[in-house]
Amino acid sequence: MKFEVNKSKCAGCGACLRACPHGAIKIGEDGKAFIDQSKCKKCGKCQRICPFDAIEEIPEEEVKT
Known about the structure:
Blueprint: E1 2-5, H1 15-19, E2 25-27, E3 33-35, H2 45-49, E4 55-58
Antiparallel strand pairs: 1-4, 2-3
């Protein structure tokens, strides 16, 4: 599994960025959050804190390798 930001729902508020204990989330030039998959430990804190439900859990079978 992995977590991805749904850009159409993201308001760029930074709640997920502050919640991530691994420093895996940044705000891009577009003002939207993005997740650095190489740093993400899949703890789900970002998903739980997002007030816009913009962070989606992608099941393993849907993760492209």
